[in-house]
Amino acid sequence: MKAGENKTKDNMAHTLKNFFLLGFCLLFALASVNSSTSYSAHAETRDFGYPIEPWNTTQGGGEFGAERSGNVYHLGDDVTAPAGTAIYAFGSGIVKHIGIHSRFGTVILIEHELVSEEKIVSLYGHLRMSDVAVSEGQSVEKGTLIGRLGSRGAENGFWIEHLHFGIHKGAYQKKWVYWGMSKRQEELTNWYNPSSFLAKNVKSKNVTQELSQTVPYQDGKIITGPGNGGRPHVRVMKTSGSAYKELDFFAYKSPKKAGADVAIGDLNYDGKDEIIVGNGPGETPEIHIFDKETGEHVRTFLAFDEDFKGGVRVATGDINNDDAEEIIVGAGPGGGAHVRVFDRNGTVIHSKLFPFGNQKTGVDVAAGDLNGDGSAEIIVSSGPGKEARITYYSGDGTLSKASILAFPKAFRGGAHVTAGDIDNDGIDEIIAGAGPGGGPQVRVFEADGTPRGIQFFPFHHNFRGGIDVASIDFDEDGKDEVVASQFSGGQSWIKVYRYNNAHTVLSEFIVYGTNFEGGTNVAGKR
What we know:
By secondary structure, the chain is mainly β. The chain has 3 helices and 35 strands. It has helices at residues 3-42, 194-201, 207-214, and strands spanning 67-68, 72-74, 77-80, 86-88, 93-100, 106-113, 119-127, 139-140, 145-148, 162-169, 181-182, 191-192, 222-226, 233-237, 243-250, 260-265, 274-279, 286-291, 297-302, 312-317, 326-331, 339-342, 348-353, 363-368, 377-382, 389-393, 404-405, 415-420, 429-434, 442-445, 467-472, 481-486, 493-497, 505-510, 520-524. The strands form 9 sheets. Strands 3, 5, 6, 7, 8, 10 and 12 form a 7-stranded antiparallel beta sheet that branches. The protein has a 4-stranded antiparallel beta sheet with strand order 15-14-13-35, with no helix packed on it. A hairpin with a 6-residue loop joins strand 25 and strand 26. It is elongated and about 75 Å long. The N and C termini lie far apart (87 Å). Mean pLDDT is 87; it is low at 1-44 and 206-218.
């Protein structure tokens, strides 16, 4: 190799060395910039939201720092809400732990990093394991649904349904320090006062809160009317159990306490639902239509001859595949098993449908697409006095050959009926609730009468007031859940069940106060 070539090689090496040094400096600078950028972005972890809506801390012992009997101190805030109430991550972070802890129920721990690089851990206690919506190691954002409140029972130590929410100072520890209470008062210094922390740091509402403002009443899936013994008080309920104040009204004026049956449907194909109300027993058999968004009265008309006083059962369904739902009415107990169908203007479509001949039991009515053709069938169940039978009509008024015995032949309390797609196959199943006099049983059938196998008692087996039924897609997974209410002789108690072997309760609440024992009628928006 020549000397000139060696010199050239040395120069090239020197140049390459400088190049790599320059590259290293650039990479270091870029890393510093990226680190700074990541740090700035992390400031958004200070944009916190409330883990439950509404945030109403339980007073008299549920507050942070409250001294309980036995000289123990409360390490978080308790917020009472019905079983099934949605619980949200209160800020972005990493799910560190999910587990069942004695009387604490299912607990979720999420680690967060503040802009100051301080780490904290949010604690969500008394959830239900079957409803946990996240997994350990998962990244979550503020407003992410993480689970739902559990019901009072063994899993939650038989506490009243509530969220225990705590904020522990410091990074997540595998050693268990995340108790709900402590005998050491000084332990309070290791926790933030949740209400104070939220009041200081919540700058914007959760995504779910913002969405509920832009889409009015999207969660108003459950409609109620009191049973016989109550005034016609109609309420639109959130699945959490709270009512919309703007949609809380009396359907008609009367000194009688006849109650009201209810239904919901889009009667004019405008994308907006109407609420349909049928007068209770003892009243003129009228149908009332209200705008669901405003509660304004739209129209009233007679369902049957004005001399009939047995009450009116109501349902809605698109029986002719025109995208507008029709109003289906059934004569209440004491009348013939008479079904009629009207359009939104009160014009009769079917006037004389008698599915059970001349028996005087009255009927309950529902609608559902039982064969997947896009049109709803008219589903009818017999009222008290005869076997609890269910059948259905096609939209043109043709009676099916199906005659489903909903409950044992000896039972004469009749049945209440609805439809729902419980398995997301595009075809509705028939859901039946036992009428008054028998155990509070719910059963589900295929259109040909084949039982689905899972049956359950939504209330205590000694309850004899009958069960009204509805269906909603509670968690919007394509599968309808079963809504059951105490129909009469009990509280206006509603439960939402996932249709599974565990009979999972997603939500439960009382609509008209604990002192009213006339029961409630229920309808669901699917």
